[in-house]
Specification:
The complex is a heterodimer. In chain A, 65% of the residues lie in helices and 12% in strands. Chain A is α+β, with helices and mostly antiparallel strands. Chain A folds into 7 domains: 3-134, HPT domain (Four Helix Bundle (Hemerythrin (Met), subunit A)); 170-258; 276-355; 360-484, Four Helix Bundle (Hemerythrin (Met), subunit A) (Up-down Bundle); 492-597, Alpha-Beta Plaits (2-Layer Sandwich); 604-705; 710-877, Roll (SH3 type barrels). The longest helix of chain A is centred in the last third of the chain and has 46 residues, at 660-705. Chain B contains 5 helices and 5 strands. In chain B, helix 1 (11-22) crosses helix 5 and helix 2 runs parallel beside helix 3 (63-73). By secondary structure, chain B is of the alpha/beta class. The chains are: A alpha+beta, B alpha/beta.
Chain lengths: 882, 133
């Protein structure tokens, strides 16, 4: 073993011991104070470090145990699950177990047996599930309470700032009024200073009036200016200086022009040199933000503002901010890069925790309230370009995320940030973009715009629903964009042990090798027998024509072996011969198999899925256009409805004064014209709605049709015995409760249960808890029961319950059972479910390998909750009821 | 030669990454820190730092909190090197907001050293891109 390897093992031992000690300390603290957040954070970090280090060394069993423990701790740390005594006992056991496993591993330099700690791991998983199920209601209450605390106050303040004074200051009428008032005060102040120099109270009142007016209408820099003048007057008791300063300030503004008040203010301050950075830097920030000065003046104003910020940053030794200003200056023209750099300067100053942060934050919030639409619009424009600037798209998305932060839209903020991250990765070449990502981004923008509009028309309402739409979009975007998608979509079917442990990059490399060479090989090695042969093998795989993609530990009885996944520049048969050459007796090395390219038809299926997705994208775009057209119709209708009909009639009356006959005819014409127009538009609107409905049906059908070839499917997520299933929406006919319907035994169908609907229809009942393959079985009788036993045990339990209900001896309120009634070409059927979890679009991954034979399931999908759900293939389930 | 700081609470990881990066002559590891607080103390000592390789989960001061301060105080580009910053994740999203210049998943895999090398290729590619090498 090399020195470097030894060093890594030594560090693993050292780090591991420290982490385990830290876990024990944290647990001791938590035993005394279960709400000690620093202790739970420390516990989480230690477990996370231990897990990561174990993963690095390929210690899968240790990693798996620490992973589930980390998840349990994570729920306490992040989701408000209370730390209880069971947590303490379980995690203490876990620390002991991990310590033992680490010692065993250090002695042998190999992973422990996969059975080690399996009982404890199961207890941790049970605890995890229990915690996930239990605290939701409490958490929601808690979250609501949190939202009612500081954040709500901050939000209210931001809204007040935005909708109140700022809006008035931007109105030229108010600005004019303000300046007239300032000029009048200036004259009165001059008179007071000249005629009654000792009456500083009256002078102070003049300044206070200006100050109050400036605050009320939100004049950018005036409040700070007047405040300084009042301080000056208070200290000197001489109004002449304040009068002169006020005059100079007004002159400075006149020179620069009223449209550039902020620039004038700044120049005045810089020249005067008597105002501190707390005033001048925020003023400079205001100048950086685009809509505050006309485009022609932007560059000059930006230059001045950046100079001031650079000076301030240099004085405060904030080199990062200084460099960001330089970066903005280097963008010589008005470009996305420049605009985003300017925004970043402002954003960083707002987060700087210095004396200018609060005011800068307010300025930024004010700008972001108005700028959110602009950011979305720019994203739309950039997405429409042939050569997409993903870095700029990501930058504007982060701008919108900041706008969400100002509105306290936490979910939307998080989702937008996640999308920005994905776009950055596309820009870096780490993630490949495609039509689906583009479409999802477009959907995201539509929803985000709707949120902004809803916020204006009916603040607060529908926000939760709209935000949940965003979550669905982002989840799907993550799935199709993340590197893990390579694992989902590629056509390499790796053995489970490799699929579970290989990194995404290794899977990608495996796919590349298999594309180039047609296959991969697995070589099994038992190095305990022959050290010389192990060295030969190591030397052999280090050669150019062999590539080791990864390895896993294999336990055969008491013997630890390794499976190596190898790619070679020649066929597998030749590689097998080479292995035989290294170890002719096959005691140390043996060729364990070949991994060929997946079934040829899988490639065709992928291609078909790709085409179908493109088609769906096209239809979605058509739907978007129809939607726009419908909105235009509605707008026209609104215009007609809001038109000044009384005014028109009054005009006619005036024109036909005295001629009642002519007046009646004219009015009649007008009314008929309006009626026809409205009816015409209404018909168009109804037709459009019908067309859209039909188009949506087509999209749903297509989405369903490609379900087996990786697709996005709209489904109802249901839960049965803790497992989640997705039933395609297109297959669902209705959802009924047990009350109002009855379960019957069918003597003709060997005791099959039948649901009798209120309409009299009889449907076969399927229990999702038991699938033909045993997939998803949770066995009441214990882990050793076969799928058949599981079926009977489960079925007996279930139907005993049904019989009790049918006899009427169930407790009041417990007699409601939920059924999803589905239809297929072959007939209708009912699925009993425990709970409906809601509708969502999911990205379906086809089942592969052994699981591809399962008839009732068309694939699996990652749900918004992070769980994996099985997508039901209703047509495969269906059996006609005779 | 571009100066680098590695910030990770696991000594093993600091060594592994340091060894990996140290093999490239254009980079030189000039500082190691086990948490964000210690890393912040290093910043004034190394005004010419070009890159910071930063873990997220750390005691005392985590990577995101450090990032918040470091992006203001230092010219160095920051590469998040963490196993919890997968594409679109909450941590990755927050890191982007705070100005992370790149995000790379931590070296991991079943056979450590071989795969670490392969993961390292991407890290080196990102580092070279950020310093314009």
């Amino acid at each position: 073993m090399s020195d470097e390897t030894e060093e890594i093992w030594a560090l693993y031992a050292d780090d591991g011991a420290q982490s385990l000690d830290a876990m024990e300390q944290a647990l001791s603290a938590l035993l005394l104070r279960p709400d000690d957040t620093s202790a739970i954070a420390s516990l989480f970090r230690a477990m996370h470090t231990f897990k990561g280090n174990s993963r690095i060394l390929g210690l899968g069993t240790i990693e798996a145990l620490s992973h589930v423990a980390e998840d349990v701790i994570g729920l306490v740390r992040d989701d408000g699950v209370p730390f209880d005594k069971e947590h303490y006992a379980l995690l203490l056991d876990c620390v002991d177990q991990l310590r033992g496993m680490m010692e065993a591993t250090l002695a042998t330099r190999t992973d422990v047996s996969t059975h080690t700690g399996s009982g404890l791991a199961q207890r941790l998983r049970d605890k995890l599930q229990q915690c996930k199920d239990a605290p939701k209601a409490d958490m929601e209450t808690s979250a609501a309470e949190d939202a009612n605390d500081g954040d709500a106050e901050e939000f209210a303040e931001a809204v007040l700032f935005d909708n109140g004074p700022a809006a008035l200051a931007e109105d030229p009428v108010y600005r004019q009024m303000f300046f007239e008032m300032v000029c009048a005060s200036m004259h009165r102040l001059g008179d007071l200073v000249t005629q009654h120099p000792g009456e500083t109270e009256a002078q102070m009142r003049e300044l206070a009036d200006i100050h109050d007016a400036a605050v009320r209408i939100g004049m950018a820099d005036w409040p700070s200016v007047t405040q300084n003048l009042m301080r000056e007057l208070e200290s000197t008791r001489d109004g002449s200086s304040a009068h002169a300063s006020l005059g100079a300030y007004i002159e400075a503004q006149k020179t620069v022009g009223s449209a550039q008040t902020d620039t004038g203010a700044l120049v005045w301050k810089v020249k005067g040199g008597d105002l501190d950075s707390a005033v001048s830097v925020p003023a400079a920030v205001r100048m950086l933000l685009p809509q505050h000065s006309p485009e022609s003046a932007d560059m000059r104003a930006h230059g001045e503002a950046l100079e001031i910020i650079k000076t301030w940053a240099r004085e405060h030794e904030l080199l990062g901010i200084y460099d960001l200003c330089l970066q903005a200056e280097q963008e010589a023209t008005l470009s996305d890069a420049r605009e985003l750099a300017l925004f970043n300067v402002a954003d960083m100053l707002a987060r700087s925790a210095t004396n200018i942060a609060d005011e800068t934050t307010q300025i930024l919030a004010q700008w972001l309230h108005a700028g959110a639409y602009g950011a979305l619009q720019r994203v739309t424009e950039l997405l429409g370009q042939d050569h997409k600037e993903w870095q700029s798209i990501a930058g504007y998305l982060l701008q919108f995320a900041a706008a969400c932060r100002c509105r306290n839209w936490e979910t939307a903020q998080g989702v937008t940030q996640s999308l920005a991250d994905i776009c950055y990765r596309v820009g870096d070449g780490e993630v490949v973009s495609g039509p689906v990502l583009n479409r999802l981004l477009a959907s995201f923008i539509e929803t985000a715009r709707t949120m902004l509009e809803a916020d204006v028309t009916s603040p607060g309402s529908h926000l939760a629903a709209l935000e949940s739409l965003l979550v669905g979009t982002a989840q799907t975007a993550s799935m199709i964009s993340a590197p893990a998608a390579g694992r989902l979509l590629n056509d390499v079917v790796l053995p489970e042990a490799f699929a579970r442990t290989l990194s995404v990059e290794s899977v990608e490399r495996a796919r590349q090798v298999i594309d180039a060479q047609g296959s991969l090989s697995i070589v099994r090695a038992d190095f305990s027998r022959n050290t010389a042969c192990a060295e030969q093998f190591a030397s052999w795989i280090a050669r150019d024509k062999i590539e080791c993609i990864g390895s896993v530990t294999v336990f055969e009885g008491d013997t630890t072996k390794f499976d190596f996944l190898l790619g070679a520049a020649y066929p597998s048969e030749r590689l097998a011969l080479a292995v035989e050459g290294l170890d002719p007796e096959g005691l140390t090395l043996s060729f364990a198999g070949e991994i060929p390219r997946a079934r040829p038809d899988a490639v065709t299926a992928d291609e078909a899925a790709s085409i179908s997705r493109l088609l769906v994208t096209e239809i979605h775009e058509a739907l978007g256009e129809l939607s726009v057209a419908r909105a235009a119709i509605r707008q026209t209708l609104t215009n007609y409805i809001e038109a000044d009909l009384p005014g028109i009639i009054e005009g006619l009356v005036a024109r036909h004064a005295g001629d009642m006959g002519a007046l009646r005819t004219s009015i009649s014409h007008v009314m008929l014209h309006w009626q026809e127009k409205i009816e015409h538009l209404m018909r168009a609107e109804i037709l459009g709605t019908g067309d859209m409905g039909r188009l949506e049906e087509i999209v749903t059908e297509i989405s369903g049709g490609i379900a087996k070839n990786s697709s996005i499917v709209d489904g109802m997520v249901v839960q049965v015995a803790g497992l989640k299933y997705i039933i395609p929406i297109q297959d669902i006919e209705q959802i009924v409760h047990m009350s109002g319907a009855r379960i019957l035994n069918s003597s003709a169908e060997a005791g099959r249960k039948i649901l009798k609907l209120a309409s009299g229809a009889l449907l076969p009942v399927f229990n999702l808890h038991v699938a033909e393959s045993g997939l998803g079985c949770r066995v009441p009788g214990g882990d050793q029961a076969t799928p058949e036993e599981a079926f009977h045990g489960e079925a007996d339990e279930y139907f005993d319950e049904v019989d009790r209900v049918a006899r009427g001896d169930a407790e009041q309120g417990d007699d409601t059972q939920l059924f999803v009634v589905a239809k297929s070409e072959k007939g209708r059927m009912a699925f009993r479910v425990d709970e409906l979890l809601g509708q969502q679009s999911v990205f379906v991954k086809p089942l592969q390998g052994y699981l591809s034979g399962v008839r009732s399931v068309s694939g699996c999908a990652l749900l918004n909750s992070g769980d994996v759900g099985m997508v039901l293939d209703v047509s495969a389930r269906s059996e006609p009821l005779h | 030669m571009h100066k680098i700081m590695i910030v990770d609470d696991a000594a093993m990881m600091r060594t592994l990454i340091g060894n990996m990066v140290g093999k490239y002559p254009e980079f030189k590891v000039v500082a190691l820190a086990e948490n964000g607080k210690k890393a912040l103390e290093h910043l004034p000592k190394h005004p010419d730092l070009r890159l910071i390789l930063l873990d997220i989960e750390m005691p005392e001061m985590n990577g995101l909190e450090f990032l918040r301060h470091a992006k203001m105080k230092s010219r160095a580009k920051v590469v998040i090197l963490s196993s919890v910053a997968a594409a679109g994740s909450k941590q990755a999203a927050e890191a982007r907001t705070l100005g992370a210049d790149a995000i790379v998943t931590k070296p991991s895999g079943s056979v450590s050293f071989d795969l670490a090398e392969k993961r390292g290729d991407e890290l080196i590619r990102v580092m070279r891109k950020l310093v314009g090498a």
